[in-house]
Inverse folding.
């Protein structure tokens, strides 16, 4: 049923209307478990257990398939496409196994079939590959595409745990599916790998030809040796051109990546896709690969694209100046602040500085004083708690007026 | 003139035609320095010094403005929009200063005005904000948007250099513009900040209201103290909602970011944009923010969008199965390999292992042997040079057959 999609369409209806120039409305929902409807604000929305009736309803222009698995998802998508209706799906397994059949139906009936949510959840990677990099030949894609595997490997890496222990905890805490096989054996990643390979190289790709090795064989010892050599272990989907115009590589396996590589910084349940292409060179896309709202973000983006692309509309305006909102004056911005004082190293100086800061309501989180007891001025570095910028400015003005201060205090804002 | 765009349109014409379903052709180029035309393959392309003639040419549907600066860029863009032609521009300064005027002309004449290349070069961030995150309320955007500043700060951070020394070298090596003021004073970043703020919050934003502090005041001492506290210094553009529906924050200044933050891993001339939004949660986009080809990637993506959105075309097919390319068998994949052997710690074992590897053509780049002289089996970890997978598999089979081997050898591929 897609509770995240329902909530997003309702909550952000105005934003979506503004971004697409269309009033996108949820008109009908189908779910076999009809008792679930009560959880949602479905006023004015027709509900029922029969998906075929939903698909046949003339009020429905776009059908979202959020069932998962092969059947009946495949049948419903074909019904919708055959009726000339656009379809949005998050179903990676179905696309990886039946992509050509669905694609033929979409083309034949001039219907749109979109699947942003099928790969890397809330990251708009399908859009980037299809549109954002339209002027590029894609050379290589490396993706961390399964949050459960990345979560397990991250905890093994940073907490020194063994695979089985992390997996058991992940299942207990609901981070991993039960059974977790589709994730940890690498098949979920392989489905996404198949989709990316098909898209990047405009070719049918046989799912069974993709080499798949999951993370179950990775031991803590391997993780530790890899780190000793400057590497981390990640489950990657790798797609690249092996021979120009000929064979491609498409494979899923645990991979050592240099700890300097940006993918090495992708921790816990996050996903990321690294793309090497001939014109843009390296680009990377990072975000949440699963979860009801990240998935909903992708599904709604697809719906918005379909709405926007209807042919009777003018081009989207470059900016939508719907209002004129002021920029907050810098003095009113709140944040944490790094202050570097340059002062003579006299007794009592730090006390005076702290008194001034306190008087302006600026409280200090930490302090470094360089330990050169000398006649030369020394640096005192302070990090504040959150405060308003005008207070910091006023305090710095007073600090800079102390007779022992030797240079204007450096202020740098903290994110 | 945009040499990168010309080369990309020529080199990737087939790819672009496949992705858009349109034959996008370069028909005309204008540049005051007409002697530059000789550098490019412009057969069949009309060339000249007069941009107004190009704009008026009925064969031209889309005009790319790649001049930069305010005039005559503004005048040419208005000419094109007023003639109902779509425009693609990389001109951030012009958009930041005259966005509303250009936007009005685009809407009035139902023309498309696109500017992906104006922010973060080859990273499709405008597309992500407008379309990929269409179902999201944007809460906060933090961007590293100037490659020169990030390059300077990276070298100060990792090589302990002072600002002036790095800047001088960057100018000498052509990494920085001469004069570098627009970059290092933060104004280039502020232009991009203005565009992002206008787009995210659908509001006009007064460029002069954006607080701008460049990187010229950052000293090596500050970089070092920040690192001591677990932070890096980056020049960030920060945009966020200060009050729901009310004031926004839009500011550019050096900022301490935690070394665990993904933006901290964005080094040298690379750009990145971190977006916090209500549905997708955190997403990040990384790539090259400047350079002729990254810029061309963005310009061509805009052209491709305009071509694709022409109303007489059916929806883009979900996949384009233009060919059927085989997946390279895993045995033929080439790469580097991590091998972990579990063996009794007997003299001569390592020698035998190396002989086997050598016999299969696998050469070793590095080796770790755990130093527990005991009766228990020990681990030997080897990292190979690049080799073909079938050779590694055959060698491992032989190694696992040695009588001192106590466990199957673990093999992990290296990116």
């Amino acid at each position: 049923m897609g509770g995240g999609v329902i909530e997003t369409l309702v909550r952000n209806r105005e934003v979506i209307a503004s971004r697409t120039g269309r009033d996108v409305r949820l008109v009908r929902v189908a779910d076999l478990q009809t008792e679930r409807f009560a959880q949602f604000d479905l006023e004015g929305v027709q509900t029922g257990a029969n998906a075929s009736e939903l698909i046949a309803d003339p009020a429905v222009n776009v059908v979202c398939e959020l069932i998962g698995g092969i059947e009946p998802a495949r049948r419903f998508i074909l019904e919708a496409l055959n009726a000339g209706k656009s379809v949005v799906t998050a179903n990676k397994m179905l696309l990886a196994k039946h992509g050509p059949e669905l694609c033929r139906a979409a083309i034949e009936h001039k219907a749109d079939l979109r699947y942003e949510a099928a790969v890397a959840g809330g990251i708009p990677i399908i859009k980037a590959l299809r549109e954002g990099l339209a002027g590029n030949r894609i050379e290589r894609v490396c993706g961390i595409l399964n949050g459960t595997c990345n979560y397990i490997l991250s905890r093994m890496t940073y907490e020194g745990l063994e695979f089985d222990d992390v997996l058991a905890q992940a299942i207990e805490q609901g981070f991993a599916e039960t059974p977790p096989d589709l994730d940890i054996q690498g098949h979920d990643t392989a489905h996404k790998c198949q989709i990316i390979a098909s898209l990047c190289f405009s070719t049918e790709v046989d799912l069974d030809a993709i080499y798949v090795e999951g993370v179950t064989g990775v031991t803590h010892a391997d993780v530790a040796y890899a780190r000793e050599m400057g590497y981390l272990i990640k489950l990657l989907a790798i797609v690249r051109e092996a021979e120009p115009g000929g064979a491609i590589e498409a494979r899923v396996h645990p991979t050592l990546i240099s700890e300097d590589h940006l993918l090495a910084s992708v921790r816990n349940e996050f996903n990321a896709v690294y793309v090497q292409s001939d014109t843009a060179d390296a680009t990377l896309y990072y975000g949440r690969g699963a979860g009801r709202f990240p998935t909903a973000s992708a599904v709604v983006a697809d719906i918005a694209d379909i709405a926007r692309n209807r042919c009777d509309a003018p081009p989207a305006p470059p900016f939508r100046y719907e209002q004129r909102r002021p920029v907050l004056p810098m003095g009113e911005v709140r944040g944490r602040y790094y202050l570097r004082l340059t002062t003579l190293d006299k007794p009592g100086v730090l006390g005076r500085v702290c008194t001034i800061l306190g008087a302006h309501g600026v409280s200090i989180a930490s302090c470094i004083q360089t330990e050169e007891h000398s006649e030369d001025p020394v640096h005192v570095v302070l990090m504040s708690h959150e405060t308003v910028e005008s207070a910091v400015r006023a305090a710095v003005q007073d600090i800079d007026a102390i007779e022992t201060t030797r240079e204007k205090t450096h202020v740098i804002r903290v994110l």
Observations:
- Chain B touches chain A through 143 residues (CB under 8 Å).
- The CA atoms of residues 10 and 333 of chain B lie 32 Å apart.
- Chain B is about 35% helix and 25% strand.
